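Continuing from the previous page of notes. For each protein in this section, the sequence appears first, followed by its structure tokens. Read the first protein now.
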Amino acid sequence: MISFKQLPLEAKAAVAAGAVFFSIVLSRSFLAEQLERRTRHWLLRLQMTLFVNTLMLIGSFHVWRSTVTFFSRSSAASSFCFMPWKIAVFVFLALAHSSFFTLLFLVAEEPYFFSLAAYTCLGAYIILIFFLFALGSVEQAYKFFAGRSAKANSSRTAMKPVLAVVLTVVLTVMGLLNASQPPTVNSVEIPVHKLPPAMNSLKVVLLSDIHLGPTVGKTKLAMIVRMVKALKPDITVIVGDLTDSEAEIIRPAVEPLGELNSPLGTYFVTGNHEYYTSDVSNWFELLKSLNIRPLHNENVKIASPTSADDWFCLAGVDDIEGNVLRYLGHGMDLKKALRGCSSEHAIVLLAHQPIAAKRALQERPDISLILSGHTHGGQMFPLNAGAYFLNPFFVGLYKVGQNTFVYVSPGTMYFGIPMRLGSRAEITEIILRSP
């Protein structure tokens, strides 16, 4: 029998990841009711950070072997050039692994440079792993189909990590430049079934996935608020993942939201990341102090400025992660959210995740419009494909049935990694049209 010491490094990392995952299951099963919420929150975040890092070790060993060990065996590699390269790869991997820890310990009004560097390395790490795997797969396929006629070619083998690194650097720079630009303003006209004619051309500005935290701070939020105010919306809605941190820690960064002054109100629903903070109640109180109304499985009647008899129902549901995490008093409850919203009037629903939008339509097909976020449009290559296949609605406008539309925002900022590849941050200006 092979002992643990005899296992390859990747196998040891996989065993460690399994052990951490098992500890997460035990904690949620047996300690969930015994620990105070804040303690449970920190324990879960620490466990998830350790779990992700142990999984990343498998990729890091591969990166090290591909970019360091291989070249160290090459006679062409001079010690003068090789040592700085070795240090650079080590620092790169160390920063990528430390990125998740910054979420626990380095969150303030403005991002720390270390956090930005760490998450940038994490993004580059993901791209590099993809290209090393893809190029390696191409090489193995070539050897398989070429059979015995394929000869080992050291120069071609050496080109694989070099090409992967070059592509990673180019795409990382492109992603950073794209994400550093202000969000694009996307104007969309959506016909809303049973919207009163008096409310035709009502303007709703949709924000989603701002992710205030280690890499998004007050300056970026203030820019977003200025752009929203310039659009002069009748209503502003924030459909979740506003934050990745506790309210007290990042309170100064949230202040610009108090400048939103939409005449028919500003509304908010939770995303999955609000529940990861385990601080939803304090966030609700903070947002209320800024004249932003959380829709906690509830609704409001949005009346026409010219006639109180002309109105539609604006409803919001808690994110489905509230159910998964057993967050007391929270979780998606569509019946409660739509209480009093009859099918005689238009219904606009705020639901963070597209999968929640799908569930809502299965239960209440009379909903006129659902506004969601969560997907980030994949945020960056190569994560785009996963986000596309995991969500029933990916990004943009969808028509469901005869009278229902779903709009999924690609996000107003980004989560952690300050990069966007194959997607663009967006502030959505929605013009409601009466059919």
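Done with the first. The second protein uses the same format. Note its length before scrolling.
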Amino acid sequence: MASGTALIYDEEMTSHKLLWNDPVCDIEVPERLSCCYEQLKSYHLVERCVHVPAREGSEEEILLVHSSEHLEVAKSTQTMNEEELRRVSGNYDAFYFHPSTYRCARLAVGATLQLVDAVMSGQVCNGMALVRPPGHHSQRNAANGFCLFNNVAIAAEYAKLKYGLQRILIVDWDVHHGQGTQYIFEEDPSVLYFSWHRYEHQEFWPSLRESDYDAVGLGKGKGLNINLPWNQVGMGNADYLAAFFHVLLPVAFEFDPELVLVSSGYDSGIGDPEGQMNATPEVFAHLTYFLMQLASGKLCVILEGGYHLKSLSESVCMTVKTLLGDPVPQLTGEMAPCLSAVESIQNVRAAHKPYWKCFMYEDIPFLQNVSTRSHLLKKTDPNPSPEHGSEITNNKETAKVERFLKLHMKNILSPVPPIKTATTDSKVSAQLLPVPVPLIKEMDKTEVKALVSAFYADLVKEDKTLLSLGSMLAILDKILKKEVCSGITESPSAAVSVAVALRHSIHFGFQR
């Protein structure tokens, strides 16, 4: 079986940059890439990954998705001066050219295809490609929204052609709708495309009617295009998990993909000036973990957006840690989805009810008069009451978000209690656990007796039943003291092991 996680990064992709003033494009900076790589190094994650070199995507590979006219325009920019580049850039919506843009975009395509090859060939189990310019907005014949070539769409076509795949899932968790990807695959029955995105009833860019929940695909692709529109800002961890649990995962398991590609934009994370959402970095660990259960673990994560550098880099690290097999961290914050999220989820399920067995037998009505329809009235209120708690979202509060994330990630990465399992016998843990757990803390009989002797002095008599009870109490003591999060001991009355599965009940109950 394949093992290992690929990481693809090439510093040359940071040479693509804006040469003039443009308030629309000035957030797409080279540091988006370099800060992610530096954060991965600081957590010692780079050294744990399998290094796969980037390469240039070939013209033939780019033409799997894009027109020859689009390719020729991109090629022609390599020798242009600044004035010419600015003029050509003005032909597109929210895009800029630099003399190195074509080269960087080809590297982004090639890096993505290298990742697909590494995963499909069994060199690695999964991986992440840190690339720019991003891709999910680019269309067959046009650059759009910082994107020149559609990296993920090219990867899907490449995987179908080279490996004969018939079912590919594309998950787009960027905060913007990947309309380019939708247009490319909306009639293709071999690609299931899921996108959640800030929409606000068509008021948020790209402001397309076809970004709403009722755009389900065309022709043979009906039911295979899933849009989940967020109609208000401030969506958090619970909203994202609800979207996965109630829409994506039921459909994905029924679709049974052979490969999962993620258009991994982190502008859906806290602090991002584009998304204005409240999801914290650890939720991306959970989303990644769920997707790892599909396609026998064949998962390729490709960077898209993300414009708050601290939030972006921490979320990338959470994703890579999960790909490497690290335990997913505990989620924080309110765990009930907001009303607006529930409304959007219900409408998506109703729209896709005719196409999926997982929805077919449920009574799921459309909700026409959703709560956010009155959003225009709310704009006149100088002191609106947000449906979510803290909205650390606007650009002026970047420093505040950075301070929050610094403390938050310290707690996430060093939880109390720590992610450790106490056991009274290493042989027991070896029999009980399907995979090795390197953080087990073994307790000997002397330690057990010392911990419980005040209550059970008879333990010194080596009574097996009392010793077993003492072992359980000793583990419970460690959980209550927050030295470990769980424990395993052995019952003398049967050849079975007993797990003290009290992590959540102790942590959330007794500590109060």
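What the second structure shows: The first helix runs from residue 31 to 42. Residues 5-326+337-367 form a domain with the Arginase; Chain A fold (CATH 3.40.800.20). We return to this in next week's lecture.
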